[in-house]
Amino acid sequence: EADIYQTPRYLVIGTGKKITLECSQTMGHDKMYWYQQDPGMELHLIHYSYGVNSTEKGDLSSESTVSRIRTEHFPLTLESARPSHTSQYLCASSELQGVNEQFFGPGTRLTVL
Amino acid sequence: AQSVAQPEDQVNVAEGNPLTVKCTYSVSGNPYLFWYVQYPNRGLQFLLKYITGDNLVKGSYGFEAEFNKSQTSFHLKKPSALVSDSALYFCAVRDMNRDDKIIFGKGTRLHILP
Description:
Number of helices of chain B: 0
Oligomer: heterodimer
Radius of gyration of chain B: 14 Å
């Protein structure tokens, strides 16, 4: 079944740790996105990609980085986590052409102590 | 710049009553509009979109939205609310001037009272 997956769902780590949030989709979509959302609040686009080897920064400045080596995989990395990074991170994908809706993963709730 | 506004942070509706969640937009050119729903501890789910054509768009779970060009609005509606409709609802617009990114509103929390 075509879907979009995020792991882990919940992560609690200490300050200074390096972490990678995983996002994979089996929908065959070219475009992928990362959003940051404080619980119950608005979404902020932090990264997006048009396809393999394409990465762009979003509207919200973020200390995270992304990579797109495979179409289906779009991981987000924080080199040194801080308490200000505590938030929910949502991954999404969409088709490249046309006016298309985005499909979202279930999210990763990150807490940095 | 393209934008959407959701004027209500929260809407309370009694079960069985009709519901409306408001959204207004500001775009240059043709508006491409979306509604999404988010349940607790989940990602967003697509409900419906307006591209062109009929002003009344039907979507998932019995929801529909009315596009009104003169009022620049795209309100989400449902004839009879269910308790399970309680969630966070986001209106969004496609920003044709900025890499076709989707701009989301701040969200409206819908409470359906039993």
